[in-house]
Amino acid sequence: MNRIATHGPLSQTRFHDHGGSSGAFTVTQGALQEWTAPDGRPNPVAATMTQGAARSFGPWYVHHVINASAQPAVSVHAYSPPLESMRRFEFSPDGRTRVTMETAGRW
């Protein structure tokens, strides 16, 4: 499954995974910031991804993507098997995690 995503100025995805699918994405316009959550804890430092930067990931990779600029950004995504669900994560300061599930028809 391939997908083109547009990221409006100051938009964000919140922390999420890709429901067991592996995948990759590349920034084709603008710049994005990516936070990851290894071991279920948000990384305090973001990676800045500029035009041409790419990231690949395995199943259950958790990240949060932000367009922190006033200009739109575009990214191209590919998933295998096709993306059918995502889990969204909210991390509290005391270490608790809230998880909700979304299926393909919700995004």
N-to-C SSE string, H for helix and E for strand:
EEEEEEEEEE
Strands, total number: 10
- Strand percent estimate: over 45%
Strand order of the largest sheet: 1-8-3-6
Structure description:
There is one protein chain. By secondary structure, this protein is mainly β. The chain has strands spanning 2-7, 15-16, 22-29, 31-36, 47-50, 54-57, 63-66, 73-80, 85-91, 97-103. A hairpin with a 5-residue loop joins β9 and β10 (97-103). The model has no long low-confidence stretch (mean pLDDT 93).
Summary?
This protein is mostly beta strands and about 110 residues long.
List the helices and strands and how they pair.
Blueprint: E1 2-7, E2 15-16, E3 22-29, E4 31-36, E5 47-50, E6 54-57, E7 63-66, E8 73-80, E9 85-91, E10 97-103
Antiparallel strand pairs: 1-8, 2-9, 3-6, 3-8, 4-5, 4-7, 9-10
